[in-house]
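Researcher: Last one for today. Full complex below.
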Amino acid sequence: MNNLRYKRRKMIQKVMFFFSVASAFIGIAFLFLILGYVIYKGAGGINIDFFTKLPTPVGVPGGGMANALIGSFYLVGLASLFSIPVGILTGVYLSEFGRGLFASAVRFMAETLTGVPSIIIGIFAYSVVVISMGRFSAFAGAFALSILMLPIITKSTEEILRMVPESLREASLALGIPRWKTILKVVLSTAKSGIITGIMLAIARVGGEAAPLLFTAFGNSYMNWRPDQPIASLPVQLYVYAISPYEDWHTKAWAAALVLIGIVLMTNIMARIYAGSK
Amino acid sequence: MQGVNRNFNNINLKLSLGLKESEPPEAKEASGKTKFTIKGLNAWFGKVQALKNINMLIEENKVTAVIGPSGCGKSTFVRCLNRLHEEIIGTRCEGKVIFDGKNIFDPDVDPVLIRRRIGMVFQKPNPFPAMTVYENVVAGLILEGRKKRADLDNAVEKFLKLAALWDEVKDKLNQSGVSLSGGQQQRLCIARALAVEPEVILFDEPTSALDPISTAKIEELVHELKKDYTIIIVTHNMQQAARVSDYTGFFLLGDLIEFDNTNKIFTNPSDKRTEDYITGRFG
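Model: Here's the assembly. Have a good evening.
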């Protein structure tokens, strides 16, 4: 009787183990399928011109997406200027001082904000910035991206800071080091690599967003360096090219997809390596 | 702990515990200069009272041990003395701790300056993981803004030597502070506490996470340091209290039950509860 039960348990174990490994494999398989397909379709469109030349008019062969590539970095950089300091400071507040109703409210808002669809953030930026400025602009796009980045950086900073053991704060305070210096020199410097990892993941997350940029940064066929002018970005240019009827543009859209995946993947891998090296 | 307790039942073993039989017992109020006068000290965690009306005189350049079972308030007691207790949200304390003639709880006293003068060594070694051995020793000086390389070099050597760690780590100064062994880390923490040149050092169960050899080294160090510092040591280990201290206070459930010469506490305690504790009937 006991023997039978044991056999049954072993059978179930084998079956369930098979299913869980198979599920894990399916998850991984999709990633590789996507990667493989994008490489297959996009690799042909990758050349030096793609990175260095501006788009050509329809029908004129050649040209590239330098404007969108630069534009993406420009937008993410501008968004980071705001969201990194504010996100870190909010995380410090929540972890080091955040007790009571206000802190709970901030925490809840940050969580809610992470779940808001990015297109909604885009609409918000449109009605707040684009309408009041009277035109699409890099600034409006960066504004939308920074709202997306902010809760991610806030949450990751708070979580990392909470992992710094209380004993280190006490060690520092007991040396006669004021609280603010303790946070700056002991807590933040101990958690530095974790915070940077969080920032890189936030950048990777918004770097591939098209929806919040569609009616904020809008797009631009030329190189733009001015924050008050519309600017191109890889995801939006990819979208515009992909829905166009031109074969040449489709190839370029696939190439843009490949570059975009490459950048996001590299950022993620760098974040992991950086986090792992500490 | 059982083994320790049994020893205390045997009067012959007391000598081997290092009790200074030769020194005549003296009334603590009558002898040397008083460093702390503690009057009516109460402390709370939220609604739970951890210390109840503690009155004590702590003598300069002596070692005062604080013993008692877990949860008796010994740690809370020393954490009140450098105003670290209040750094935990929801805690408070009341009463007077007069330190060199000034109540440290007075509103015009900056706790940061108090902590410069009253150093602390914790239960678990807690060197700063993001800093090297060198940086750990002078962490207090660097963060305070003193940055002259020569001064720092001198301080590192001086205080590592004082903490009896120099010979072991002089070739590892640029390694991470957490790369050392547990006992070395604890001595590193002592060097770090000494480097800000305090007058008092509070030890909160400094050896409870260490092996016997490291423990012996720390105890030796405590003995050395009392020439220049006033020392208060919380310990779970009664042998340790007997070995290193001049005075011992026994805490139970937030009350100071008995406070006297270490010799007296371990040979002829006045209170039944002290006797029960040191002979191992509870705790």
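DSSP finds twelve helices and no strands in chain A. Chain A touches chain B at residues 99, 165, 167-178, 181, 185-186, 189-190, 192 (CB under 8 Å).
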